[in-house]
Design goal:
heterodimer, A: mainly alpha, 3-stranded antiparallel sheet, two-stranded antiparallel ribbon, 13 helices, B: alpha+beta, two-stranded antiparallel sheet, 20% helix
């Protein structure tokens, strides 16, 4: 077998495994969401179909297939059909560049990378594709020819575009730390730093989480859907499988951004406090680190290490998925103007300033000749902690986010007054 | 005196602390998430505890020989506020009155239990029972045979000397 056939077989296997794995987890997440929602509200949630309700997603899927697909008479047909597809596909495609385990050695000489495509543009590819998801929502909302859908689409376009900026800037900070845009290298850099990026660039992590919530339009940023205001928002007119693709897109988006949070800020598949799992393709060979003199140490790959690291990756990712759900069932929805205020008046300037701070700190450290390691990370952690503390303090003082009631006392005087009531004839 | 309207003063100078409130809320929801005491009743397996004074669908008491205890006195259709009881009385050879037709429209019934209260021979009762599903509407008019077949427990009457049934 020549190298090309081997490559084809390897990638086909990985693509299939990742695709079906992601779809399975997405289906399961719909159940987990409902179960967790139930638990939070002191209920059980769906627990009847199969053990613990495990087969509920299958039942839901079957139901959606059997449902009638309605087509609004005045809808713009092609776009109405395209909307769900466009919102689902990018969310799935983004997973391609996320490394989900340490490389798997097969036989004596062959090593299988646990990533669909280790493209050198990594994070740029993710940024480019994940923003496409919003077009699906906007398209669906506008094509429905329904005022509620239209409002949902309108909100989606405004909100997602505004938070895209902060998201991008938070990623820029990660790039400054990693010095590269490949996700495999980011994992490697976190292993080299002996510190997950969530600590040395904590504020970037917070900004990333907030923006990711807005990007996936989850609570408290679920403006496009806003079922209590806009009926169903952008998917008011959708039914059957076309509707089901929107939640599927939302959940895959959630899963992808959780995987990104885990990879960019929590070491990806790295197992903490253990260097035995480190592996990186360097000069054509797999290395686990460098000696003091800068000589590469060859990595010892093993199938059980792949399994363990996959477990670490899955645990980290699913923690964030649960976090998404947890937040959704805790926090009420923002007002639209508050979302815009938070996006443009807080997130954007803070992200910009933070990029400057981190860049300056890294430059200073480089000039002082501090080696890339724990000391390097410690200084950045201290700087970031100050920034984060300041950011949270300002946010907490309520100067940027306040309820409709605050300040009302300035406009209205309160009093007890007599009201004359005229009785009916 | 004319009615007054109280205008409630908003707390002054209070700014919403979004972050602290959110964290507090997350702690609260987490507490509920891990709380094993759920309020859901797993219905077909677990059954609710009904009060002994629960007033459900009716039941007619029968004598040992299978005749209904009803003497067709006509008190229950008279007292029934929703007029859901239809009674046609008859008399047998010995001069005993008995119901020829006794129908209760359970859709009209408001389950006040006054038929049970008024019955001089303790024949008609409301029952401690709630599973009444049927496939057709006309099945909800219970005739005499149907009422006699019911075997669920009967409701306890309210006792004025023991108002809280203790």
């Amino acid at each position: 077998m020549n190298e090309q056939t081997l490559f084809l077989i390897e990638k086909s296997i990985i693509v299939l495994v990742v695709f079906f794995g992601v779809m399975l987890v997405v289906a399961l997440t719909t159940l987990v969401e409902r179960r967790v929602a139930g638990f939070i509200q002191d209920r059980y949630g769906p627990n009847r179909v199969g053990p613990f309700g495990i087969l509920q997603p299958a039942a839901d899927g079957l139901k959606n297939f059997l449902k009638e697909e309605t087509m609004p008479a005045a809808a713009a047909q092609p776009y109405f059909w395209l909307g769900p597809v466009i919102s689902l596909a990018p969310a799935l495609v983004t997973f391609a560049v996320v490394p989900f385990a340490a490389p798997l050695p097969i036989g004596e000489s062959y090593v299988m990378q646990m990533i669909v495509a280790d493209v050198p543009i990594g994070i740029l590819y993710i940024l480019a594709l994940s923003s496409l998801g919003v077009y699906g929502i906007v398209m669906g909302g506008w094509a429905s020819n329904n005022k509620f859908s239209f409002l949902g689409g309108l909100r989606a376009s405004a909100q997602m575009v505004s938070y895209e900026v902060a998201l991008g800037l938070a990623v820029v900070v990660v790039l400054l730390m990693a010095g590269n845009v490949t996700l495999t290298e980011m994992v490697w850099q976190q292993q080299q730093l002996h510190l997950w990026f969530a600590f040395p660039i904590s504020l970037a992590f917070i900004l990333f989480v907030i923006s990711a919530f807005a990007e996936t339009s989850r609570m408290p940023f679920d403006m496009p859907e806003a079922e209590s205001e806009l009926v169903g928002g952008f998917h008011t007119e959708y039914s059957g499988m076309k509707y089901a693709m929107y939640p599927m897109g939302e959940y895959s988006h959630m899963l992808t951004s959780s995987a990104l949070m885990a990879t960019l800020f929590f070491g990806g598949w790295d197992i903490p406090f253990w260097t035995g799992d480190n592996a990186f393709l360097f000069d054509g060979g797999w290395i686990s680190g460098f000696t003091e003199a800068g000589v590469a140490i060859p990595a010892e790959l093993a199938w059980w290490k792949t399994l363990l690291t996959f477990g670490a990756f899955a645990a980290k990712t699913y923690f964030f998925v649960i976090f998404y759900i947890w937040v959704r069932w805790t926090v009420p929805r923002f007002r639209y103007d508050q979302i815009m205020q938070l996006g443009w008046k807080v997130m954007l300037p803070v992200a910009l300033a933070y990029v400057m701070v981190v860049a300056a700190t890294i430059l200073t450290l480089d000039q002082l000749g501090v080696p890339y390691g724990l000391g390097f990370g410690a200084v950045l952690t201290a700087v970031s902690a100050i920034c984060t503390g300041f950011f949270l303090l300002v946010l907490d003082r309520g100067r940027t986010l306040f309820g409709a009631a605050s300040g009302a006392h300035k406009r209205f005087r309160s009093e007890t007054k007599a009201v004359s009531v005229t009785h009916g004839d | 005196m004319p009615p007054t309207v109280k205008v409630v003063r908003r707390p002054e100078g209070v700014r919403t602390s979004y972050l602290r409130a959110t964290l507090k809320g997350m702690a609260l929801t987490f507490k509920h998430m891990v709380n094993p005491n759920k309020v859901t009743l797993q219905y077909p397996e677990e059954r609710p505890d009904l009060s002994p004074r629960w007033r459900g669908t009716h039941r007619m008491e029968v004598h040992a020989d299978g005749r209904p205890k009803c003497v067709a006195c006509g008190l229950c259709p008279t007292v029934c506020p929703s007029n859901c009881i239809r009674l046609v009385g008859g008399e047998d050879d010995q001069g005993n009155r008995y119901p020829i037709v006794y129908e209760i429209d359970e859709f009209r019934c408001i389950f006040c239990g006054m038929c049970q209260e008024v019955c001089p021979v303790e024949a008609i009762h409301v029952g401690v029972h709630f599973e009444n599903a049927e496939y057709t509407r006309d099945r909800f008019v219970y005739d005499l045979d149907r009422l006699m077949e019911q075997d669920h427990p009967t409701a306890l009457l309210w006792d004025p000397s023991d108002p809280r049934s203790e």
